[in-house]
DNA sequence: ATAAGTTGATATTTATAAATATCAACAATT
DNA sequence: AATTGTTGATATTTATAAATATCAACTTAT
């Protein structure tokens, strides 16, 4: 976890090569809400080392742990983001992600709350769940 | 939710008939940790109306929401049981379910903690998650 | 210029989870 | 007695998610 862990680096083809999956698969994971890669103003994606680790966790969850993409999405939807970014009660009331729970918070278009002023791709919630099996730890931490 | 919601009633064959699945499938769900039906001293299972509802939710999760059994198990593993049954810190330290997070708490053989003196099948944690999509609500409740 | 990227759609392949269907040997229920 | 239940194992079927492979039309990078 050095200083450029989160630095956008690899074009999609290179990321796919490193993960041994197809380019299409990476776009699918994005469409499904599992990842949120950096995009240049031109629309071209650049993947960071953190993204690679995140994707390795996703691959592990699918191939070894036998979770479906929907299952991973459901797990990520349980991250108590409102505690991590310190939402006010009013923020929560205005948050679709808080009231629903079908998609990870970073897949929503946030309006009228704390997250409206944050880019999800740079948000602590997204960045700290590089490893998708850490959701329970997060729940423990906020309740202790 | 009347007084006999949780009363053991239906033999496995009758439960399977009501849910339109095979008897084997119900046993599989149990082996996978998703359900915990009452068992007579003879080993014969009896399913309650609550079990039927629970199983309907499981069927919905698999067939409509596209979760795998492993995915449902992972979701249920995130229930903050230690808050629901008011574990002490020492209870938590002695709890395999707290330290791991691969199976729902009711699938563990509890020793040296609060749950050692409770039958999981009668525990509030198990009984209150009849609807497996309520995990986020539970997380919200304990953090507010 | 060539290579690599984009979106969006569609079609196919592949892998495998989910479910069913079997055994056998035995016990409990009605 | 006949039915329904138990465990445990195995084998097969079925459904479908996951992944790949295609298009086309276009844009960006080197």
List keywords for this structure.
3-stranded antiparallel β-sheet, DNA-binding, 144 residues, mainly alpha, homodimer, 3 strands
Task: Describe this protein's structure.
The structure is a homodimer of 144-residue chains. By secondary structure, chain A is mostly helical. Chain A is 47% helix and 5% strand. Chain A is built from nine helices and three strands; from the N terminus they run E-H-H-E-E-H-H-H-H-H-H-H. The first copy, chain A, has helices at 12-19, 23-31, 49-63, 69-76, 81-84, 89-93, 96-99, 124-128, 135-143; strands at residues 10-11, 38-39, 45-47. The first copy, chain A, has a three-stranded antiparallel beta sheet with strand order 1-3-2. In chain A, a hairpin with a 5-residue loop joins strand 2 (38-39) and strand 3 (45-47). The model of chain A has no long low-confidence stretch (mean pLDDT 91). The A-B interface holds A 65-72, 74-75, 77-78, 80, 82-83, 98, 101, 133, 135-136, 139-140, 142-143 and B 65-72, 74-75, 77-78, 80, 82-83, 98, 101, 133, 135-136, 139-140, 142-143.
